[in-house]
């Protein structure tokens, strides 16, 4: 099958997204509005009967003083990745983006390769011989993933640099932690928590922690805690206008696309988080907390309220987003993995990000420049 590809309207794109149970929040039209430094465009794949059968949000980042751009489809495109003729889907995309001046294309196929249950993650952390999740047997292995990776390589796609030792990619995370909500009651979901999680939720309730849903006007309170978190965990925080733009763009597309939650105790906001929703998939997006009064466990209370609301929305999965794939005690990110897996979440490995150099010289030069930054 060879598909026809062309630019589509936001409305066409959203109608297609509505037919899918799960599409990344980075593959909806409004995500382009969150990234003003990129030129966003919705692409559509049409079959022989002129039906829209695939879609993707591509972000184009122009190079200064050159009529060339990097094309990026984060966690996309949304196509039939199991198709026997995968080249028939990707070849038209490469041709189109080359005409648009792209010198390189980067994408993140939404293809799962392996899963480790919460119990398997716990066992891996306890195993002195294990350094990474891949050192222990996966609970589930997707047989088609390796075949898809092989097809991509034969087409000329290259696996992008996976980033640092902690398993986080330079683009989107390859490893995430997800809690299954589909077919489970809230009692069953809470029953999947480890003892520490259940104990902390009870502590927060007894201490009087109240989790409320906030709005645009509460973003400065969130951001204040977020900056404190960045200083504590040594990462560069995004500015407040980024989150204000994110809120405006996403909620204009769908009022429930983005939510803000705040955990209050004795008149003070101790923790806050953003939650994103597309179809049956809910993501914990950004989190923030203060070091003060940690003993009242606001973070567990916050996450439990978000999971309860996700369940009420009919979500099938609650996605904690990125985790490290290393399981060594001296890894500073291990605590984050423990926290997320403690909620009964399974570790999920995706196929990772892939690149196709349309202009090999320019692709290599820019990759070298970025690697030295």
What does this structure look like?
- This protein has 373 residues and is of the alpha+beta class.
- It folds into two domains: 4-108 and 353-372, Gcn5-related N-acetyltransferase (GNAT) (Aminopeptidase); 112-141 and 163-350, Aminopeptidase (3-Layer(aba) Sandwich), CATH 3.40.630.30.
- The protein has helices at 10-17, 30-34, 87-99, 118-126, 143-155, 186-191, 195-207, 219-233, 240-253, 298-312, 334-341, 360-372, and strands at 4-7, 39-46, 52-62, 69-73, 102-107, 112-116, 140-141, 158-159, 175-180, 210-214, 258-265, 268-278, 281-289, 317-322, 346-350, 354-357.
- The strands form two sheets. A nine-stranded mixed beta sheet has the order 7-6-15-9-14-13-12-11-10, sandwiched between helices. The protein has a seven-stranded mixed beta sheet with strand order 1-2-3-4-5-16-8, sandwiched between helices.
- Helix 7 (195-207) packs across helix 10 (298-312).
- The model is unreliable at 164-169 (pLDDT under 50).
């Amino acid at each position: 099958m060879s598909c026809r590809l062309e630019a589509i309207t936001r409305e066409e794109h959203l109608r297609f997204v509505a037919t899918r149970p799960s599409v990344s929040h980075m593959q909806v039209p409004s995500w382009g509005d969150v990234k003003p430094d990129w030129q966003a465009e919705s692409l559509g794949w049409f079959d022989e009967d002129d039906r829209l059968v695939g879609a993707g949000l591509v972000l184009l980042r122009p190079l200064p003083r050159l009529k060339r751009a990097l094309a990026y489809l984060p966690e996309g495109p949304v196509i039939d990745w199991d198709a026997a003729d995968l080249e028939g889907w990707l070849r038209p995309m490469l041709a189109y983006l080359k005409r648009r001046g792209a010198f390189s294309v980067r994408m993140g196929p939404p293809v799962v390769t392996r899963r480790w249950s919460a119990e398997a993650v716990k066992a891996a952390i306890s195993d002195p011989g294990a350094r990474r999740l891949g050192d222990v047997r996966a609970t589930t292995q997707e047989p088609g993933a390796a075949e898809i990776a092989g097809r991509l390589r034969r087409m000329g796609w290259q696996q992008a640099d996976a980033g640092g030792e902690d398993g986080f990619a330079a683009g989107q995370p390859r490893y995430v932690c997800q809690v299954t909500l589909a077919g489970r009651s809230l009692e069953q979901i809470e029953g999947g928590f480890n003892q520490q999680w259940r104990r902390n939720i009870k502590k927060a309730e007894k201490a009087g922690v109240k989790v409320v849903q906030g709005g645009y006007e509460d973003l400065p309170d969130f951001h204040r805690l977020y900056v404190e978190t960045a200083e504590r965990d040594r990462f560069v925080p995004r500015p407040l206008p980024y989150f204000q733009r994110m809120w405006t763009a996403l909620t204009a597309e769908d009022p429930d696309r983005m939510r803000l939650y705040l955990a209050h105790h004795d008149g003070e906001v101790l923790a806050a988080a953003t939650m994103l929703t597309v179809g049956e998939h809910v993501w914990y997006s950004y989190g923030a907390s203060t070091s003060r009064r940690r003993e009242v466990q606001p973070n567990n209370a916050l996450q439990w309220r978000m999971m309860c609301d996700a369940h009420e929305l009919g979500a099938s999965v609650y996605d904690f987003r990125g985790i490290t794939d290393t399981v060594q005690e001296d890894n500073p990110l291990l605590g984050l993995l423990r926290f997320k897996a403690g909620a009964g979440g399974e570790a999920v490995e995706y196929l990772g990000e892939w690149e196709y150099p349309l202009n090999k010289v320019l692709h290599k030069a820019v990759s070298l420049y970025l690697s030295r930054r």
